[in-house]
Design brief:
Elements lengths: L1 H36 L6 H11 L4 H23 L8 H39 L2 H7 L4 H39 L4 H11 L2 H27 L4 H34 L1
Helix pairs in contact: 1-6, 2-6, 3-4, 3-6, 4-6, 4-7, 4-8, 4-9, 6-8, 8-9
Amino acid sequence: MVAIVKNGVSWVGASVLEVTPAIGRLVLYIFSTFFWFLKPPFRRTLFFEQMVFMGNKSLFIVLLTSSFSGMVFAYQIYLGFTAFSVDSFVGPIVAIAVCKELAPVFTGLVVAGRCGAAMAAQIGTMKVTEQVDALECMGVNSVQYLAVPRVFATVITMPMLCMIFMLIANLGSWVIGVKVLGIDPVMYFSKLSDFMNLPMIIEGLIKASFFGFLISIIGTYQGFAVKGGAEGVGRGTNMAVVWGMIMVLISDFFLTAILAKIL
């Protein structure tokens, strides 16, 4: 029994000693990102290039995800509501769920899988091939050149993608609800205007922007932390995707609780 307790305490202690420095390095990296964001030169070209990569290149997968998410959610809600003869509430229920939860979370997961991995892979490859060291030798700060444009481009493009998700998902819901399931279109829109309001949309956009910050910070940080050649690049890319998705899901709960009291 004593040995089990000792082993448990040793495991907890080792975990704390391993995690604490990593959290400290991440916090310092976040402060460094903000510091270099405020200092010239402001690399506008890199910033707009990253906006195109994060936004335009992610548009197809967001459209695909949003359309089928809205349609399947409307269909499932309809199957439940018809038992109580309240199928006219399908529209507002889907709209509220999409705007407050589905749009920011699904967009965050899509961007984490696509762009978070790309950030870690690109910067990690530069790290193991000593291109990052070459930038520093030329007097160019690697965080300002590689991380800052990616982080703040993601923060801005995520709400844009989220708005597109909201629009397409609600359009898909309307197509299934009105054209396929036969819900009265007048009732659909009247109930929608009764239950939907602007703070719900704002909540979703705030969440999307915050998720974008988390995803880009984790992705770029994992890229700079890469060690050990190609194997390290693969490991860093995997960590960027996994932790990006985990942080989106965890932070969603706390953001919901905070924004519910503010908005």
